[in-house]
Amino acid sequence: MDKDFCRKVSIRGSNDLTGIKLTEPKRHAAGMSGIQAALQHTFKEMGAVRSMRALLKMNQNDGFECPSCAWPDPDKASKIGEFCENGAKALADEATTEHIGREFFRKHSVEELSLLSDYELNKFGRLIEPLVLRPGSVHYELITWQDAYTLISGELRKLDTPDEAIFYTSGRSSNEAAFLYGMFARAFGTNNMPDCSNMCHESSGVALKETLGIGKGSTKLEDLYKAEVVIIAGQNPGTNHPRMLSALEKCKINGGKIISINPLEESGLVNFKNPQTVKGMLGGGEDLTNIHLQLNINQDIPLIKLLIKKLADLDAETAKVFDHEFINKYVDGYDALMNDIKKYDSQDLLRSTGVDEVRINEAVQLLASKSRIIVCWAMGLTQHKNGVETIREYINLLLLKGAIGKQNAGTCPVRGHSNVQGDRSVGIMHHVDVALNNRIKEYLGFIAPDKEGLDTVGAMKAMYEGKGKAFICLGGNFLMAASDTEYTAKALQRCALTVQISTKLNRSHLVTGKTALILPTFGRSEKDMKKGQLRYVTIENSMGRVRQSRGLLKPASNNLKSEPELIAELADTYFEGNHTVAWKALGEDYELIRQHIDNVIKGFDKTSENSKGSGYYLPNNVRDLDFSGLPNGKAQLTLNRLPDHELRKNEFMLMTIRSHDQFNTTIYGLNDRYRGVYNERRVLFMNEEDMKQQDLIKLDVVDISSFYDDTKRTAYNFLVIPYKIPKGNLAAYFPETNVLVPYNHYAVRSKTPISKSIVVKLTKVI
Ligand code: SF4
Questions:
Q1: Does domain 652-764 have CATH number 1.20.140.150?
Q2: How far is the CA of 240 from the centre of ligand 1 (A)?
């Protein structure tokens, strides 16, 4: 083997422009065009019969959970057609009839494939057999499952310490797979378990835990229906969690009001044409947002402070604006917060937000008289240096209004990947939980490590520095999901071994360690049969409900393994059948895994039984108004600082956003219908006045550069589009602009990357 052999793979793929077409942004979401798009995608990828069979079972009690986002289904049985355009696209993507195996990789080297875009790579179809990329080779070749396990086990045994291995999890896995994977990592001897939560909602988890005692939201789906006010902050449900729009529609019909807080006006929050109603299909749909506070990027803290200040002034007159009874009984820190808020000048706060004061006063009037308030949010709040503090500031508002622990009120962090919350619940985490370790010892019979593991940033750094040598990924596309693409690529390439448990080809299969493996697995919609029995797994949705998921489609190949089975077989090979856990048996019988989950994971209870039908809710102390785990046994109001960045001349604040034709790193198509962009992803949304000042006209091409720690990072070749976005702010698509986000700049305490507030400059390409 040539020791210095280095594959010449492109980490960016193609930067070519693809032929843009523009229209006006849409004023409504879903409706007939949503149905058309959903069916077009599924019929094209899967054929009409297979599509309809699967769509009729998606999100049904006896079917499978949508593989896309974590939005919940109604507690009572779902209506037929309880899915959205994005759910249908996710299904089409995994259940496509296009397949690739050894012949494909014999023909195409990883170097050649890496020149394609992420969209093109995804289009090749499902991976159907286990493959290995050997040291010195640029072609994947077939490997048997047993040889793959033996090879991985051999590499793991070569490590100087178990902490040189890293076990990453994306949020697609089931509870059963994630539990086994987490237990295997611990049995192997490490807590190096970064997950995709580290990159998205970790700030939510930290802020919620500190203030309310649990790192999850407190609302249930039905709470949204009768809320008086729903605040939607830093979230675009029309594209990322589309069925949330039905819940918001119900809220509006019941008399609720919606406040959107977002630098962009998103079509899904303007008007929703519900495809399940006559009004939605034939009429004008339901207007959703009542008040849009179009703030500057990352100015939520000044905005909420201003709202609280104005509400406090009203409360001083009437003592009826804040819920003093609730505060006295359940909340700590009221006096400190009231003293702190006096220090801020209203006009300074207003200037920072960039919002029209008339709109702010409307929001104050609305909030003053209501108490059934829900705050929903996503990465528009979490992915900033002050992500944790930003969320805590929103929680301050809820606590002052007594909008916690009661029906139709509370916190609603809206999770991206369908089981990202469940994976964490069943033990995927880099922190040490002593109580969990004790239960592992009691029920699984081995000693779990008591040393803190690596999160995503720590894992990237360890691999980059040569301290992380074996990187195993349960799903996902780590290279494109993580920040600082070039740094992450080098980190992966320095590994001795990278393993991807995957359904489709992505760039993380091409930018690899010396030896790389692809272990192909079932999609959520596929039948998982063993000894004539149809097996099921369980999933926890964004609101903490655990439910069964059972695939029905014929798997893409006979040479796939389910995730639980392949993890169990790998563990069995590694331990050579000599361990306190009967891994092999667990891989065959998921009932045994669920029994272990019930024993080892607090809150899980008779999961096989209780997860039937519409499933069961995991315990949530906030719903029970139990804050006994917090200082003074009370929910915590917090003092949060204002953001500290100021833009200098020619600098802009860039946020990364998703297009309508993508889900996280998976690119289904090149359109962003709601924003009026077609056939192109290399676009930069920009305020028209800023464009004039920068001497730019529509469709000029620019390079975007960030400058952190004396390092210039550049994303090349972006078409400028005039857009309704506040001056000084820019938006461009993730993951193309991840390259601009320095790996070592992240939210304080949660280490979530600053992907929503990147300071950049533009250079016009002549
Ligand atoms: S809202 Fe989310 S979970 Fe529901 S169908 Fe759409 S993508 Fe799937």
A1: no
A2: 8
